[in-house]
Amino acid sequence: MIALLIRDMRLAFRAGGGFGLGLAFFLILAVLVPLGVGPDRTTLALIAPGILWVGALLACLLSLDRIFALDYEDGSLDLLATAPVPLEGVVSIKALAHWLTTGVPLVLVSPVLGLLLSLPVPAYGWLLLSLMLGTPALSVIGTFGAALTVGLKRGGLLLSLLVLPLYIPTLVFGAEVVSRGAQGLAVGTPLALLAGITAGAVALLPFASAYVIRINLR
Amino acid sequence: MSLKVTDLACARGGLPLLEGVSFALVPGQALVLRGPNGCGKTTALRTIAGLQPAMAGQIDSPPDTIAYAGHADGLKATLSVTENLTFWAAIYGTNGIDHALDRMNLRQLADRAAQNLSAGQKRRLGLARLMVTGRPVWVLDEPTVSLDAASVALFADVVRAHLAAGGMALMATHIELGLPEARVLDLGPYKARLPDPSSGFDEAFL
């Protein structure tokens, strides 16, 4: 299991591994929005929580189709399915590797990008916390989507269409935490709901993903 | 310990391909499945490896004994030969890839990235993976494709050593493997009869 995590991380950082793709997208978005909207700080501060969360979500979405497609094409997925590791574990590890290579970097650069978007000072802590809590759900739900589309050539569009509706609750509550935090309001309820979605997704979706992969490998 | 297949029927894409396939393998034996393209060799092997359910029949083997190698070698292009093998050894909970590297003549290529290997060298690495699984039943699909004559002989030696150590091998191929002692099962006669079109599924709705 640890070996699989190390392998996936190593593959992500090697040439063509896709690490940095989401990060670059996130950066470009945060640089372009102030240019498009204009430099008015109050407007930017108002939309910053939403932009940052939408950016993180789309950046996550960009690298989803790589989770299983590459392993499917080179036959590794067949071999992993016949190996003495439970497929549920393989799926969870793959989601974890995706989170570590995509979600965590997004969380870490988000305060810097918040600065570009004139995010109000009290919101930074909440931005970090909400992304830290929310991005695992994005990876796990995305892994489920990737499992659903694994055998399809150019399944990227279908994957986006399947996954985006499932991302909406995470986006709504995540952005709500940050915008409430920016206004100095209580954030308990959206934060609890965000954490609940993540906990539920992490606990249940790997079983669904593993089942779907078994069907897709037939 | 043995692999026993009784009255196996399997389908690909919902279309029945084979039915009534029966054979048994005991330690030290190799069985070669033959038959024309599309007769269901790969499907039978995937079914036996547990990647898809059988339509009918039984596959009896002790759990966690089968190592499967398909058409694709399952190599990661950006990982080196050593890294690829070490990964699979860790997954199967075995250690020591040196033996496999030596036996498949990969020692000089150990640090090379898999993307820079030739087709035959990739295949050798894919077969070396079998040796690090430590499993007794090898289920191999076209194992000698793109291997040169010397490597085919190398592969035959490895399979012989595996059999001598109490292993079993089930292989599908239509070219010579260099293993004259292996039994041959022609899958041609086991072709599934096409279902009678008049008793189709649509009938139920008419």
TrEMBL record, chain A:
Compartments where located: Cell inner membrane
A biological process from GO: cytochrome complex assembly
UniProt keyword list: Cell inner membrane, Cell membrane, Cytochrome c-type biogenesis, Membrane, Transmembrane, Transmembrane helix, Transport
Domain of life: Bacteria
Residue stretches spanning the membrane: 12-37, 43-64, 96-117, 123-150, 157-179, 191-213
Membrane topology of the entry: Multi-pass membrane protein
Principal location: membrane
Entry keyword annotation includes Zinc-finger: no
Protein name: Heme exporter protein B
Organism: Roseinatronobacter ekhonensis
Lineage: Bacteria, Pseudomonadati, Pseudomonadota, Alphaproteobacteria, Rhodobacterales
From TrEMBL, chain B:
Domain ABC transporter, chain residue ranges per copy: 3-206
Coiled-coil ranges per UniProt: none
GO molecular function: ATP binding; ATP hydrolysis activity; transmembrane transporter activity
GO biological process, one term: cytochrome complex assembly
Gene3D superfamilies per UniProt: P-loop containing nucleotide triphosphate hydrolases
InterPro entries membership: AAA+_ATPase (IPR003593), ABC_transporter-like_ATP-bd (IPR003439), ABC_transporter-like_CS (IPR017871), ABC_transptr_haem_export_CcmA (IPR005895), P-loop_NTPase (IPR027417)
SUPFAM superfamilies: P-loop containing nucleoside triphosphate hydrolases
Alphabetized UniProt keyword annotations: ATP-binding, Cytochrome c-type biogenesis, Hydrolase, Membrane, Nucleotide-binding, Translocase, Transport
Domain of life assignment: Bacteria
EC code(s) of this entry: 3.6.3.41
PANTHER family: ABC TRANSPORTER I FAMILY MEMBER 1
Name by which UniProt lists this protein: Cytochrome c biogenesis ATP-binding export protein CcmA
Organism: Roseinatronobacter ekhonensis
Designated gene of the protein: ccmA
